[in-house]
Each structure stands twice: as C-alpha cells, then as structure tokens.
Amino acid sequence: VKANIEVRLDMMTFNLIEKLKILEPYGHKNRKPVFYVPGMTLPVPTTMTGKHLKWRLDKDLELIYWNGAESLQHAKDYNIAFTLGENLFRGERKRQMVVNAITPAE
C-alpha cells in the first residue's frame, strides 16, 4: 500500500475530515488519500465479531482494522497506512482511521 503523506495523530482532526470531503467523490481515478504513521504504539484492541479489531486512541479517535484479528503480527510498535473518515453511531461522532496496511516497526 502506498501512502500519500506521513502524518502525526494530532493532525487527524474533524477540520481535516471536512476538508477531505471537498475531494469527494472518490473512485478509480480519484483515490481517497492514504496517510501514514510510523512507529506507533497501540493499546490492546477490542475484537469485533471475532474478526475485526478496534483501538480507542483518544476519546473521539478510533483505529479500525477490518478482518485483522487473524492477520495482525504482534509487535511493540507498528507502521500504519490508513484512510481517515468519521463514524456517527448512536449520536456519537468519532474520527475514524481505517487501516489499509499495518506492519511491525523495526
């Protein structure tokens, strides 16, 4: 997976999410931007329906790895490529990072 830009978590704001919406609609010739965070330490994830992983990184920031429960290699730190969006569930709005690729950091 090729990332477009290396970022820090504090850059993943609701304001950035709103600015990314200007680039929509995404499709074959207009790919959603992929961000990259190197060497990230993750807390213990929650497993969803036995196959998806979710990490709560802040009160309104989560990292989702669809179908990642069986493929995640355990490590101290990870290099993570992801897309950024938002999740509105039961009236609660959260920033949501969706994993495109995750590898152990060296």
Concise synopsis of the structure shown:
The protein is mostly beta strands. It has one helix spanning 14-20; strands spanning 5-6, 35-41, 46-48, 52-58, 61-65, 77-89, 92-104. It has a seven-stranded mixed beta sheet, with no helix packed on it.
Give a written overview of the molecule.
- With 106 residues, the chain is mainly beta.
- Helices cover 7% and strands 47% of the residues.
- The chain has a seven-stranded mixed sheet, with no helix packed on it.
- The model has no long low-confidence stretch (mean pLDDT 95).
Number of helices: 1
In helices, the fraction of residues equals under 10%
Any low-confidence stretches, pLDDT <50, length ≥5? none
Q: Outline the biggest β-sheet.
A: 7 strands, mixed
Give the number of DSSP strands: 7
Mean pLDDT: 95
Task: Estimate what percentage of residues fall within beta strands.
Answer: over 45%
Distance between the termini: 18 Å
Broad structural category: mainly beta
Give the spatial strand order of the biggest sheet. Answer: 1-2-6-7-5-4-3
Indicate the overall shape: globular
Please trace the helix and strand order, writing H or E for each element: EHEEEEEE
Radius of gyration: 14 Å
